[in-house]
C-alpha cells in the first residue's frame, strides 16, 4: 500500500487527509485487506485522538461512495453536511458551523436519484447504439441491391438482351401478362371440354343401346318371309329419343361393337317375349358392309377409333341394324310370338353372348399354313356358319393367302328355304365372290332326298384313311399322335370336351381374349369341323352336349363324326369339333 509520512512519523494511506481526517471519497472497502486497513486506521485514531471516524462510519462510507466523478462533489457536499454535527469542531472547520444538517434519508434519496439518472443515461446510450446498427444494416442492404442490379445488367449485356429500352421492357412485360391470361383462359376451356366429353362418355357407357345385363329396346324396321316357316327381321336401336350428340355417340358405339364382334367369331343375343317373360337366343347375320371394312382398315384399334369419330362428326349417321333369320316352331313360345311382330313394333334384346373365337382356333395371320373349316348347318344354323366365315374373312381378307378354306354344307327341309332371292343365299354368294372361292357352300334339301352324309364330311375335310404298310402300322402312329394333344384352351380336344363355348371369359364386364398356351411362338392352329342346327341335327352329327355346373358343355364327339374319327385318326388329332 502506498502512503504518505506525516509529522507524527506514521505512514498514512492515500484516503487520509493531511489534517488526519478520512477522505471518504477515496475509501473503497471492496476487499478484506481494505477492511483491515480501516481497522488499523481506527486503532491509530484512538491512539492519537486525531481521527474522527469510527469503524462503522468508515464501513458505511463504502456504500455512500459516489458512482461517478460528476456526482462526486454533490455527494461529498451532502456527506460533509451530514457528518458535520457528529464531528468535533476543528479550529479550521468553524466556517461550516452555520450550515443545515443533512439527514440520512436525504442522502438515500439523492443516491436513488443519481442511480436513476445513470440508468436513463445507459438506456439512451443503448438506444443510440441500436439506431446506429439499424442504419448500418439498411445501408448494407442498399449496397447489396445495387450490386445485384448491376450484376443483372451485366448478365443481360453478355446474353445480348436489350436493357436500355424501358419501353420495350414494358411491352414485353405486358405481353407476358397477356400470355398468362390467355393460358389461363385456354386451360379453363380445355378442362371444361374434357369434363363434358368425360360426362358424355360415362353417359354413353352407362346406358349402352345393347348390353348383357338388361334388355334394351329395338324397333323392327324390316320383315321378310323367306319360306313358309322362316322369316328375317331387321331391327335398329331405339335411341332417337335421347337426341343430339348423345344418341350419335351411342350409335357410333354400337357400330363399333358390331365391327368388333364380326371380327372375333360367333355370338348371339337374347330376344324377350314380354307377355311370358321368357327369352331365347338368336344369331345375328353378318352385315356385308361390316365384313368389307377389312379391305380399308387393317387394325382393330384404328377401326374402333374410326367408327367412333365417324359417328360423332358425320352429319348423316348410319344407324347400325341387326338381322335375324328365325324359324317359327309350332307351339314355340318366342319364335311364334316373333312371327306375329310387324314393322314398327318394338322388341327387347340382351347381349351380346360370344361363344367360339374361330380366328384364334383356326389361325391368325401368323399361321404357318392355312387350315380348313367345314361347317355342317341345319336350317337357321346357317347364321353362325356365316358369322364364322365372316370373321375369318375379316382376319385374312386383305391377302387371302393364309385364309382357311371354308366349306359350308347347309341342309334344309324345303326348296323354298334356298330360293335365289333368299337374303341368306345372296349373302353366301357375296362371301364366295369376295373371298375368291375361299368360302364355298353346298345346299341339300330333304324334299329332294338329299342329306349331309359321312362321305360329304370326308370329302370336305379331305381326311384320308391311314396307310397300311407291311413294316409300319401308320394307324397306330396316328392314334398315338392324337393323344399328344397340346395343353391349350384353344387348341386341345381334351379341353374342348368340358368347354361351355366361352372363348371370351367374363372379367369385370369385359371379354378379354383367352391366352393360347401352345409352345411360345408356335400356336397349333387346328382345322375346325363345326356343327350348328336344331338339337336333333347336332346330336346326329356330333353327339349330345351335357350339363354340368349350370352350363351346357360340349361333351365327347359322337354321332357320325365320332364314327368317322375311329376310321380316320387325323380327324381326332388335327381337327376340333365344335358344337353350336
Ligand atoms: C346360341 C343359339 C343361337 C340360336 N340362333 C337361332 C336363330 O338364329 N334362329 C332361330 O330360329 N333359332 C335360333 N336358336 C334357337 C332358338 O333359341 C329357340 O330355341 C327356337 O326359336 C325355339 O324357341 P321357342 O321359344 O319358339 O320354342 P320353345 O318354346 O322353346 O319350344 C321348343 C320346342 O319344344 C316344343 N315344346 C314346347 N313346349 C312344349 C311342351 N310343353 N310339350 C312338348 N313340346 C313342347 C315346341 O313345339 C318346340 O318344337 C338358337 C339357339 C341357340 C342356343
Descriptive report:
Residues 44-110 are annotated as: Disordered. Residues 61-74, 98-110 have a biased composition (Basic and acidic residues). One of its GO terms (cellular component) is mitochondrion. 46% of the residues lie in helices and 16% in strands. The protein is an alpha/beta fold and 580 residues long. It folds into three domains: 3-102, no CATH class; 180-354, Beta Barrel (Elongation Factor Tu (Ef-tu), domain 3), CATH 2.40.30; 364-580, no CATH class. The longest helix is centred in the first third of the chain and has 56 residues, at 104-159. It has a seven-stranded antiparallel sheet, sandwiched between helices. A five-stranded parallel sheet has the order 12-11-10-13-16, sandwiched between helices. Residues 1-9, 50-56, 58-71, 84-96, 295-301 and 474-484 have low confidence and may be disordered. It has helices at residues 32-48, 55-64, 69-83, 104-159, 166-206, 244-264, 288-292, 300-313, 333-339, 358-362, 382-396, 423-434, 454-461, 474-483, 493-498, 535-542, 559-567, 569-574, and strands spanning 3-5, 11-13, 216-225, 230-237, 267-273, 278-282, 284-285, 322-327, 346-354, 372-378, 405-412, 439-445, 527-532, 546-548, 551-553, 575-579. A hairpin with a 5-residue loop joins strand 1 (3-5) and strand 2. Flavin-adenine dinucleotide is lined by residues 268, 280-283, 324-327, 329-336, 380, 383.
Amino acid at each position: 500500500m502506498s502512503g504518505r509520512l506525516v509529522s507524527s512519523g506514521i505512514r498514512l494511506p492515500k484516503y487520509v487527509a493531511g489534517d488526519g481526517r478520512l477522505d471518504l471519497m477515496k475509501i473503497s472497502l471492496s476487499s478484506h485487506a481494505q477492511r483491515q486497513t480501516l481497522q488499523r486506521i481506527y486503532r491509530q485514531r484512538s491512539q492519537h485522538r486525531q481521527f474522527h471516524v469510527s469503524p462503522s462510519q468508515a464501513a458505511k462510507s463504502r456504500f455512500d461512495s459516489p458512482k461517478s466523478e460528476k456526482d462526486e462533489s454533490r455527494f461529498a457536499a451532502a456527506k460533509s453536511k451530514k457528518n458535520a454535527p457528529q464531528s468535533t469542531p476543528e479550529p479550521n472547520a468553524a466556517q461550516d458551523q452555520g450550515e443545515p444538517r443533512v439527514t440520512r434519508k436525504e442522502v438515500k434519496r439523492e443516491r436513488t436519484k443519481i442511480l436513476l439518472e445513470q440508468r436513463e443515461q445507459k438506456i439512451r446510450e443503448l438506444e443510440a447504439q441500436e439506431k446506429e446498427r439499424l442504419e448500418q444494416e439498411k445501408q448494407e442492404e442498399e449496397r447489396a441491391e445495387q450490386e445485384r442490379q448491376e450484376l443483372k445488367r451485366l448478365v443481360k449485356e453478355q446474353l445480348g438482351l436489350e436493357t436500355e429500352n424501358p419501353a420495350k421492357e414494358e411491352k414485353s412485360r405486358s405481353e407476358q401478362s397477356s400470355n398468362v391470361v390467355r393460358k389461363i383462359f385456354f386451360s379453363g376451356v380445355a378442362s371444361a371440354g374434357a369434363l363434358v366429353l368425360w360426362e358424355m362418355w360415362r353417359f354413353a357407357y352407362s346406358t349402352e343401346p345393347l348390353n348383357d345385363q338388361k334388355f334394351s329396346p329395338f324397333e323392327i324396321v324390316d320383315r321378310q318371309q323367306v319360306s313358309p316357316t322362316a322369316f328375317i327381321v331387321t331391327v335398329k336401336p331405339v335411341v332417337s329419343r335421347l337426341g343430339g350428340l348423345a344418341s350419335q355417340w351411342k350409335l357410333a358405339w354400337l357400330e363399333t361393337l358390331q365391327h368388333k364382334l364380326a371380327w372375333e367369331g360367333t355370338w348371339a343375343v337374347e330376344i324377350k317375349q314380354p307377355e311370358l317373360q321368357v327369352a331365347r337366343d338368336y344369331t345375328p347375320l353378318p352385315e356385308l358392309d361390316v365384313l368389307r371394312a377389312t379391305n380399308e382398315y387393317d387394325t382393330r384399334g384404328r377401326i374402333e377409333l374410326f367408327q367412333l369419330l365417324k359417328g360423332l362428326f358425320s352429319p348423316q349417321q348410319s344407324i347400325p341394324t341387326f338381322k335375324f333369320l328365325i324359324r317359327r316352331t309350332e307351339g314355340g313360345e318366342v319364335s311364334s310370338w316373333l312371327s306375329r311382330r310387324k314393322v314398327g313394333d318394338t322388341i327387347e334384346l340382351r347381349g351380346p353372348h360370344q361363344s367360339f373365337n374361330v380366328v384364334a382356333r383356326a389361325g391368325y395371320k401368323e399361321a404357318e399354313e392355312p387350315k380348313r373349316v367345314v361347317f355342317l348347318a341345319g336350317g337357321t344354323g346357317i347364321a353362325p356358319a356365316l358369322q364364322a366365315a365372316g370373321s375369318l374373312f375379316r382376319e385374312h381378307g386383305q391377302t387371302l393367302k393364309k385364309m382357311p378354306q371354308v366349306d359350308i354344307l347347309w341342309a334344309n327341309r324345303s326348296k323354298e328355304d334356298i330360293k335365289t332371292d333368299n337374303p341368306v343365299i345372296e349373302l353366301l354368294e357375296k362371301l364366295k365372290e369376295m373371298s375368291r372361292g375361299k368360302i364355298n357352300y353346298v345346299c341339300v334339301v330333304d324334299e329332294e332326298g338329299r342329306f349331309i352324309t359321312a362321305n360329304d364330311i370326308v370329302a370336305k375335310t379331305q381326311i384320308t384313311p391311314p396307310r397300311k404298310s407291311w413294316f409300319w402300322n401308320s394307324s397306330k402312329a396316328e392314334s398315338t399322335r392324337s393323344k399328344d394333344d397340346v395343353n391349350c384352351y384353344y387348341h386341345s380336344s381334351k379341353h374342348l370336351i368340358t368347354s361351355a363355348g366361352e372363348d371370351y371369359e367374363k372379367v369385370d364386364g369385359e371379354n378379354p381374349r383367352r391366352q393360347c398356351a401352345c409352345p411360345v411362338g408356335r400356336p397349333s392352329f387346328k382345322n375346325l369341323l363345326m356343327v350348328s342346327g336344331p338339337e336333333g341335327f347336332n346330336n346326329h352329327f356330333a353327339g349330345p352336349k351335357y350339363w354340368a355346373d349350370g352350363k351346357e358343355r360340349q361333351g365327347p364327339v359322337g354321332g357320325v363324326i365320332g364314327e368317322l374319327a375311329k376310321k380316320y385318326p387325323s380327324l381326332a388329332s388335327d381337327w376340333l369339333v365344335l358344337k353350336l
